[in-house]
Automatic annotation (TrEMBL):
Belongs to the MurCDEF family. MurF subfamily. It comes from the Bacteria. Residues 334-455 form the Mur ligase C-terminal domain. SUPFAM superfamilies: MurD-like peptide ligases, catalytic domain, MurD-like peptide ligases, peptide-binding domain, MurE/MurF N-terminal domain. Its EC number is 6.3.2.10. It is found in: Cytoplasm. One of its GO terms (molecular function) is UDP-N-acetylmuramoyl-tripeptide-D-alanyl-D-alanine ligase activity. InterPro entries: Mur-like_cat_sf (IPR036565), Mur_ligase_C (IPR004101), Mur_ligase_C_dom_sf (IPR036615), Mur_ligase_cen (IPR013221), Mur_ligase_N (IPR000713), MurCDEF_CellWall_CoF430Synth (IPR051046), MurE/MurF_N (IPR035911), UDP-N-AcMur_synth (IPR005863). GO terms for biological process: cell division; cell wall organization; peptidoglycan biosynthetic process; regulation of cell shape. This is UDP-N-acetylmuramoyl-tripeptide--D-alanyl-D-alanine ligase. Residues 25-94 form the Mur ligase N-terminal catalytic domain. Residues 107-296 form the Mur ligase central domain.
């Protein structure tokens, strides 16, 4: 395997000391997933990573990045000793960024960061070596870890940058030093930490603080707060382009059609018109895809090839994936369609998910009830601020619910929605999502389409898992993908 860090390079980057020579093929912060040959970084959280150094070395770690020799570890073990482990990880990130000629893309936004990151990975992989964050590694650990893992021969790097509180994005953006910074959207999320949506917009805009000289900001131009984003860019002297449906945008969605499990998009990218397909349903995916093509153009890469390759992308797990769950191994038509969107939720993403649900066609004549239903299983949306109950209840009048048969709710906040629903649409309400998971077999019937949506902390993902587990016969159990 390719050597990522030598002891000499790591010492030069961090100013630390090591007792021997070693070579690392990767960087890890978790002994549960560490691979032989990787550098283990002993960060401190609920548990102190130093407690796991011996285990990491026994597993085959090339070395460990530590602030002291851990108990039970010999002094001559392959250790890189530094004053502060997190600062040293950030130093590795800075060195990794400096030694590569890669074009770096920073992605932030209130929703859609991970999906957009994966779109960028998919459309750039045929245009060069792509390095991108794993899962949602977008915080004060995830960003430096992603950068520290970046091979020197990378052509494109996609760095996801998130936040929970003011002042988090700018320092991470300065680490990444993106050539292109994309802001997917600004919506009501983490409201408890901010004074209104304008404060969130300013925090998202601070990704521009890290832009390289001559870099380009790609921002959503259809938002109520878009002017905050563009004014921030102007104040910083940064170039910017906008994307969206509005006529004033640099890049525009001209037409979006959803049919046959696909989204077909006609768009104007700069001065050229293009047609592309997304192998999933959702106007919000079309918007993110347009932003991705705007990024590709700003990078100077091949937009036409990227548009063609957009069909290669699939939503990440828990973010709108479609699965066919066969309930009877001997009758393949006895199946339900599961839309697993249980990783995160806010009012904007719930709006998008409900639109996807009603764009998906149930199947009649195959179940006990004989009429296929659209069913929403909803968990609490967290961190919405003081008016969170009103924001939940407001979805009772969402136009999409006219075409939804039943809404099952879990959590104290979703009780506000459940109480506001008309009686004939009220399904179950439970305090904990695990209680819905326990009765999943009673909630579904063959032919149904079931959306499972909620914030990660609501644990509504347990309902998606329970529905998935209703499937029979191994291979037929879960046909993952988009329908």
């Amino acid at each position: 395997m390719t050597v990522l860090w030598t002891s000499k390079d790591a010492v030069a980057a961090t100013g630390g000391k090591t007792s021997c020579d070693w070579q690392a093929t990767g960087v890890s912060i978790d002994t549960r997933s560490i691979k032989a040959g990787e550098l283990f970084v002993a960060l401190k959280d609920v548990r102190d990573g130093h407690d796991f150094v011996a285990q990491a070395l026994e597993t085959g770690a090339a070395a460990a990045l530590v602030s002291h020799v851990p108990e039970g570890v010999p002094a001559d073990a392959p250790l890189l000793i530094v004053p502060d482990v997190l600062q040293a990880l950030e130093s590795l990130a800075v060195a990794a960024r400096a030694r590569t000629g890669a074009k770096v893309i920073g992605v932030t936004g209130s929703a859609g960061k991970t999906s957009t990151k994966e779109m960028l990975r998919a459309v750039l992989e045929r245009q060069g070596q792509v390095h991108a964050a794993e899962m949602s590694f977008n915080n004060h650990w995830g960003v430096p870890l992603t950068l520290a893992r970046m091979p020197a021969d990378t052509d494109f790097a996609v760095i996801e940058i998130g936040m929970n509180h003011p002042g988090e994005i700018a320092p991470l953006a300065r680490l990444a030093r993106p050539d292109v910074a994309m802001i997917t959207n600004v919506v009501a999320a983490h409201m408890a930490a901010f004074d209104g949506i304008e404060g969130i917009a300013r925090e998202k805009a601070s990704i521009i603080d890290g832009l390289q000289s001559g870099g380009v900001a790609v921002v959503n131009g259809d938002l109520d707060t878009s002017s905050i984003l563009t004014e921030y860019a102007r104040d910083k002297g940064a170039q910017y382009v906008t994307f969206g449906m509005g006529e004033s945008n640099t890049h525009r969605l001209l037409n979006v059609q959803q049919a046959g499990g696909m989204t077909v998009v006609r768009a104007q990218v700069g001065v050229s018109e293009t047609l592309f397909k997304i192998n999933s349903l959702g106007e919000h995916f079309a918007m993110n895809a347009l932003g991705v093509l705007a990024v590709v153009q700003a990078l100077g890469a091949d937009v036409a090839l990227a548009a063609n390759d957009m069909a290669l992308w699939q939503p990440p797990a828990g973010r709108g994936t479609f699965e066919t769950v066969v309930l009877d191994a001997y009758a393949p038509d006895q199946a339900v369609t599961l839309i697993d969107d249980a990783y995160n939720a806010n009012p904007t993403s719930l709006d998008a998910a409900l639109k996807v649900l009603v764009a998906t066609q149930p199947v009649d004549g195959v179940g006990r009830i004989h009429t296929g239903r659209r069913i929403a299983v909803l968990g609490d949306m967290l961190e919405l601020g003081e008016d969170e109950m009103a924001q939940h209840a407001a979805f009772a009048t969402h136009p999409a619910l006219e075409n939804v048969t039943l809404v099952h709710c879990a959590g104290p906040r979703m009780r506000a929605l459940w109480q506001a629903l008309p009686d004939h649409k009220r399904g179950e309400w439970v305090e904990k999502a695990t209680d819905l998971a326990a009765i999943a077999h009673r909630l579904v019937d063959a032919g149904d389409v079931i959306l499972v949506k909620g914030s990660k902390g609501s644990l509504v993902s347990t309902v998606a898992t329970a529905i998935r587990n209703l499937g029979q016969s191994g291979e037929m159990n879960s046909n993952k993908g988009s329908v």
